[in-house]
Amino acid sequence: MNEFLFASQKEAQVFMRYKPTLGYISGGEEAERFTAVWFYMKDDRNFIFLPVFADTKPQELFGKSITTILKGSYFIRQGCLFLVKESPEDGLYVEACEVLSSEKQAKTFALLNGYKDINFLLCRVFTFEQKRRNFVTVIWVGYSQEQNILYCLPAFVQDYALLSQFNLASLMREAVKEGESFIKDGVLYQMYCDEDKEFYFSQKMSILKPNQKFRL
Asked: Pairing between strand 21-26 and 35-41?
């Protein structure tokens, strides 16, 4: 699922022999799916298409319209967030967001799923057993008073399976404040605040050595 067939403009150009544009097709037989493609318009009636994703079905390439996707754009496909970037070597390319490291990305994910005006906090979540807290992971927790919605989103995509084992409402939550740190899979991260007063975290130290401990 969501495996790339042609992730970059360079890869598509080698196969297509033309420099393509990135876009998505809408209005086809499976319009609910996000059909990202590289395309080249030979003339007013003829297009060449190459799918970005390996599991794209042939019928998805026959939609009613095609829209260009620009650098810096986000889109969601099969529950995963993707970002369009550009480099001198590859031209435009699509990258999966394996870590949602900023409040902006959490808001974008929610907005693309139809939920707007949600403010997020990054929270550590814990179970509470035998009078002690057990750290599970960190998640973005958003709330919209207007829509009366509590929106929980894993910061690390790999945690979807882990969190499916819990009732999120039963987990203890503790907000990660600016300047605070947390450890995830042996990596130390720190929380910051940007010029728009929105939160983001970044890796502060490389993977910890065995038996090396930090007290947070």
From this structure: antiparallel
Q: What distance separates the 2 farthest-apart alpha carbons in the chain? A: 70
Amino acid making up residue 156: F
Identify the H or E element spanning 107: helix 103-112
Q: Is the dihedral of CA 30, 33, 37, 41 positive or negative?
A: positive
The residue that leads in pLDDT, 88 or 214, is: 88
pLDDT at 207: 58
Amino acid at 101: S
Is 0.90 topped by the overall pTM? no
Q: What is the pLDDT of residues 76-94, one digit of tens each?
A: 998 899 999 999 999 999 9
Q: How many CB atoms lie within 10 A of CB 26?
A: 14
Angle at 50 between CA 25 and CA 86, to 5 degrees: 85
The sign of the torsion formed by the CA atoms of 126, 193, 200, 79 equals positive
Is 212's pLDDT higher than 80? no
